[in-house]
Amino acid sequence: MVQEKGGVGKTTTAINLGAWLGKLGFRTLLIDLDPQGNVAKGLGVEAPPGVMYRVLRESAFPLSEAIVPTGVPNVDVAPADTGLEAAEVELISALSRESVLRRKIESGLLRERYDRIVIDCRPSLGVLTVNAMVAADRLLIPVETHFFAVEALQTLLQVVQTVRETLHPRLEIAGIVPTKHEPRARVSQVTLAMLRERYPELLTETVIRKYVSFAEAQLRGVPIYDAAPGSDAAEAYRSLALELEVEHVRRVA
Asked: First vs last Cα of the chain: how many Å apart?
């Protein structure tokens, strides 16, 4: 889950996509690489301090030691906190700094332990985000249907191409998902049309609308399907999870 611009629903998407993957029967791990640490908070988890800092900065500290269970079926989380700010600064001068997370995932055999691993990035293109890109198979890019978010998207796609050329040639884009869409707002209508014109092969069919219930779910520390069961908001992320899984099956077939 990567996006340079903040406030586009990136963490909301990570939480609710991960929760739906778990509900659909996939053993799912959420890894938080944002120092704000909102993934654990959004799932009502009391996170032990400093664990992701230790994962990234202590060679002998395994990622498995940072993982804690959630109350969501089939979903665990490796939580973050403000200690990641220091980790990002220290990683700048580290050897093979771009692949620390990938090595920790592989050495912990986490791809065998989990069916799906969802990584939530901070809204920047620094070394933590590059670590996520190098560790990932596919990137999901949430984009708010507002003009400035679309303009920032091109910069992000250029960085993705650079990562492919220099660090991870098999990296794919799972999709660009429109978020916080307001179908009655002219700017949202125009922006969504622009996204469909520019990125027809990458844009997801699922469009995530702006719902008050997302904020309520975060306040309660539960996925949207618990806060508003059967609602359009909950069904939107179910639709996204199913769409991504169908596309995944198509690609590996």
From this structure: 24
Query: Strand order of the sheet with strand 28-33?
Result: 68-69, 75-78, 28-33, 116-121
Residue 175: inside a domain, yes or no? yes
Q: Is residue 5 part of a domain?
A: no
Can you give the CATH number for the domain in which 135 is found?
3.40.50.300
Residue 4 in domain? no
Q: What are phi and psi of 140, to 5 degrees?
A: -110, 130
Quote the tokens at residue 129: 């985000």
Q: Cα(215)–Cα(102) distance, rounded to whole angstroms?
A: 32
Residue numbers of the chain with a pLDDT score lower than 70: 1-8, 95, 248-253
Distance CA 35, CA 128 (A): 10
Please give the residue range of the domain that contains residue 97: 10-252
Which pTM value belongs to this model?
0.92
**Length reported for the chain:** 253
Report which DSSP code applies to 62: -
CB 30 within 8 A of CB 78: yes
What DSSP character marks residue 206? -
Angstrom distance (rounded) from CA 140 to CA 155: 15
Each residue's pLDDT tens digit, 39-82: 999 999 988 889 999 999 999 999 999 999 998 999 999 999 98
Extended beta strands in the chain, E state: 28-33, 68-69, 75-78, 116-121, 138-144, 172-179
- 2 within domain boundaries: no
With H, G, I as helix, E, B as strand and everything else as coil, classify residue 181.
Answer: strand
Give the number of domains in the chain: 1
CB 248 within 8 A of CB 117: no
